[in-house]
């Protein structure tokens, strides 16, 4: 069995000293027993390590645990082994936050029974615990299970308006807005009795409006926008921000600009989120230069731009082929106290067309302290794969592993697609098998089932 924290993770989990890593590597047997849930108590070490300093005991903390669990977010068995290991080996008392993180990983892989076992063992649950379960059930389209979870939250004194709103938010986020609207505004008397004391006001309507936006049902969005007026619901800044976004995404940016003017007439003070939407709308409908001008107006009115504002400008410049100007904005961001983030670099990656330039930008990103995400690596692997360049694909893959990220199904599929495209069937099959062994979903590829190997 591979060590649970490979050597390449030491750069990410830098607070863990080598002796701690060595202890971790050698504590897991080659043929581990099935995952168990030890009692939540401080275990006694059977063979205490006298050389382990007090400082090393202190670095086995919540932050380190969360960082390591994040590394294993695409490998629930390894994450669970690590979760149990720090408790049994170091007596680490898991916090509500570390429990919630582990529950989220289990839910991602549909290990709901194990997740509920953890919930039962938790010393304390909070609204986040149930929000995680709502999200994981609804993202798997298990709507009834999510609703039952809301009822079950009552066993822990958490069946309140906050939990209800978290349930509705999860339903809307994962495109089950029909069910969300039925729960909030429907005629189910039995359920209405449960939520009788909750206010079905602007906040709930905004969630549902955003849900229709996530569905991309533009006519329903317009219908619900009008229904808000009919139901006497006051539209606030967030309502307008959502609907302006809807108009942009539905290909009507000029209507978003019209809403912006309507807001100004009503005296609704725009925040940075609303301005960002309008800047994008004006950039698409009237050009990037007008968008930059609005950005200056925003500053004059005392609304400080954030990283999303700059990202919007960078994206507009890149889409208009003005890459050099986008580079200048990138240079100015840090000087103005607004450091670029992952999205900033993604905007630039998408418009670059030379492998060496892309790899240089990736190095610049890392050196500046911006850590690439799995989406970054997938974006680049797919880009190089489409171009038929395998060398940069493997350079990116190596960087991903060196930064302690366990590849997800999208990364594996992007790599396998690139290998199949180049006729490297044996290597593609190897990664396909590795992916399946981790419990990740692989694409069905006839080449890997029937194709001849490269050895012929």
UniProtKB/TrEMBL annotation:
Organism: Lactuca saligna (Willowleaf lettuce)
Domain of life, source organism: Eukaryota
Name of this protein: Pentacotripeptide-repeat region of PRORP domain-containing protein
Stated family: Belongs to the PPR family. P subfamily.
PPR repeat placement: 95-129, 201-235, 236-270, 271-305, 306-340, 373-407, 408-442
GO molecular function terms listed in the Swiss-Prot or TrEMBL record: mRNA binding
UniProt keyword terms in alphabetical order: Repeat
PROSITE patterns listed in its UniProt record: PPR (PS51375)
Pfam families membership: PPR, PPR_2
């Amino acid at each position: 069995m591979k060590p649970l924290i490979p050597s390449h993770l030491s750069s990410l989990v830098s607070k863990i000293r080598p002796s701690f890593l060595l202890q971790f590597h050698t504590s897991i047997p080659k043929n581990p027993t099935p995952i168990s849930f030890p009692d939540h108590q401080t275990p006694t070490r059977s063979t205490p390590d006298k050389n382990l300093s007090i400082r090393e005991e202190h670095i086995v903390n919540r932050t380190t645990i969360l960082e390591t669990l994040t590394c294993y977010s695409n490998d629930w068995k390894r994450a669970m082994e690590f979760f149990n290991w720090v408790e049994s080996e170091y007596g680490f008392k898991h916090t509500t936050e570390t429990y919630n993180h582990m529950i989220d990983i289990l839910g991602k892989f549909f290990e709901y029974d194990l997740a509920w076992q953890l919930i039962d063992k938790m010393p304390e649950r909070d609204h986040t615990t149930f929000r995680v379960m709502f999200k994981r059930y609804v993202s798997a389209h298990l709507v009834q299970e999510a609703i039952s979870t809301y009822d079950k939250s009552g066993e822990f004194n958490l069946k309140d308006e906050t939990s209800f709103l978290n349930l509705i938010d999860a339903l809307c986020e994962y495109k089950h807005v029909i069910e969300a609207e039925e729960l909030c505004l429907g005629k189910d008397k039995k359920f209405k009795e449960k939520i009788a004391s909750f206010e079905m006001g602007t906040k709930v309507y905004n969630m549902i409006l955003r849900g229709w936006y996530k569905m991309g049902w533009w006519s329903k969005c317009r219908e619900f926008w009008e229904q808000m007026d009919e139901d006497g619901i006051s539209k606030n800044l967030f309502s307008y921000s959502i609907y302006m976004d809807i108009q942009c995404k539905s290909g009507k940016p000029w209507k978003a600009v019209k809403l912006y003017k309507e807001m100004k007439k009503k005296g609704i003070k725009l925040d940075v989120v609303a301005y960002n939407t309008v800047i994008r709308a004006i950039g698409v409908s009237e050009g990037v230069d007008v968008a930059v001008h609005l950005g200056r107006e925003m500053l004059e009115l005392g609304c400080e731009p954030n990283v999303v504002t700059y990202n919007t400008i960078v994206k507009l410049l890149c889409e208009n082929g003005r890459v050099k100007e986008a580079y200048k904005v990138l240079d100015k961001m840090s000087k103005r106290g607004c450091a670029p983030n992952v999205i900033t670099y993604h905007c630039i990656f998408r418009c670059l067309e030379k492998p060496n330039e892309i790899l240089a930008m990736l190095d610049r990103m890392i050196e500046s302290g911006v850590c690439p995400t799995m989406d970054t690596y997938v974006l680049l692997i797919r880009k190089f794969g489409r171009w038929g360049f395998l060398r940069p694909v493997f350079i990116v893959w190596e960087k991903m592993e060196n930064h302690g990220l366990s590849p997800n199904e999208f990364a594996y599929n992007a790599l396998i697609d690139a290998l199949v495209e180049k006729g490297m069937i044996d290597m593609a099959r190897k990664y396909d098998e590795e992916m399946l062994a981790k419990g990740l979903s692989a694409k069905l590829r006839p080449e890997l089932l029937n194709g001849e190997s490269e050895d012929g």
